[in-house]
Design goal:
This protein has seven helices and eight strands. With 263 residues, it is of the alpha+beta class. It has three domains: 3-101, Orthogonal Bundle (Helix Hairpins); 121-168, SH3 type barrels (Roll); 174-257, Alpha-Beta Plaits, CATH 3.30.70.100. Strands 4-3-2-1-5 form a five-stranded antiparallel sheet. Strands 6-8-7 form a three-stranded antiparallel sheet, with helices on one face. Strand 2 and strand 3 (143-147) form a beta hairpin. The protein is rod-shaped, with a radius of gyration of 32 Å. It starts with a helix and ends in a 10-residue tail after the last helix.
């Protein structure tokens, strides 16, 4: 076959299929736009219906987006005469090969779905998952985004989180701030307790609650007291710093709770 015949056939093929190519291009653009629009709509709808729950929305919206793109891809191939049954057969065979090659990636998807259903944490929770520490920003299809206390971005694979021991510091409405300090053995514990409870009243302590002052350890020369104050979980770090400062002021004012000098 000479070059003239070859280019003639190519040109004839392009002219015959130019309409299919334009339609496929339009379907691809429309599918891409529709996938983004529908996924955004699903995300916002889930947040409204689930009372502003931002945990489920990102993962479900991503699944919807990829599903629409898959259907778009099948339609585009159909414009060039590829039968749908053949497409599904090829994609099924390719899917098995891809699944074997990308076991880690698929395990992240399965783990992401598992995290959504089990709910060991929600968006906004502060967690520690075997050293992965931070506030959950988004639970995605492949990984979870977190932000550390000092503002560092962390991306953790879902499979690692699902297999980790997760400590959720935000799950309960309140947490206890525990502070310890020493007083002389001869100090009046009842007096110490009263002054500490009065001195630790502040914005982070609920009006109806009183700090507990308990004896932690006892030695021949001193007593270690533990102060336990319930505060809102979201305020724990600030509350701990504030209560430590207030406790120092109380101790300094009382002279370390030393017993009165003997006459």
């Amino acid at each position: 076959m000479n070059n003239t015949a070859f280019f003639g056939i190519s040109t004839a093929w392009v002219i015959a299929n130019v309409w299919s190519f334009l339609v496929a291009l339009a379907v691809l653009a429309a599918g891409w736009f529709l996938a983004g629009m529908v996924s955004s709509y699903v995300y916002n709808l889930l947040r409204q219906r689930l009372k502003r729950d931002a945990t489920v929305g990102p993962l479900v919206s991503q699944v919807v987006r990829y599903a629409i793109l898959f259907v778009t891809f099948v339609i585009v191939l159909g414009q060039f005469g590829v039968e749908t049954a053949s497409i599904l057969t090829v994609l099924g065979a390719a899917g098995i090969a891809i699944a074997l090659a990308l076991q880690g990636t698929l395990s992240n998807i399965a783990a992401g779905i598992l995290l959504i259903f089990l709910r060991p944490f929600n968006v906004g929770d502060y967690i520690d998952a075997d050293g992965i520490v931070g506030t959950v920003v988004e639970v995605g299809l492949f990984g979870t985004q977190l932000r550390t206390y000092d503002g560092v971005f962390v991306f953790a694979p879902n499979s690692k989180l699902s297999n980790a021991k997760i400590t959720n510091y935000s799950r309960e409405a309140s947490r206890v701030v525990e502070l310890k300090f020493n007083v002389p053995r001869s100090a009046d514990i009842a007096q110490v307790r009263g002054e500490v409870q009065q001195g630790l009243v502040g914005d982070y302590v609920a009006p109806a609650s009183r700090p507990e002052v308990l004896v932690d350890t006892l030695t021949d020369t001193s007593v270690t007291l533990a102060v336990r104050v319930p505060v809102r979980s979201s305020d724990w770090n600030m509350a701990r710093a504030d209560l430590q400062e207030k406790l120092k002021i109380v101790i300094d004012r009382a002279g370390g709770f030393a017993p009165p000098a003997q006459a």
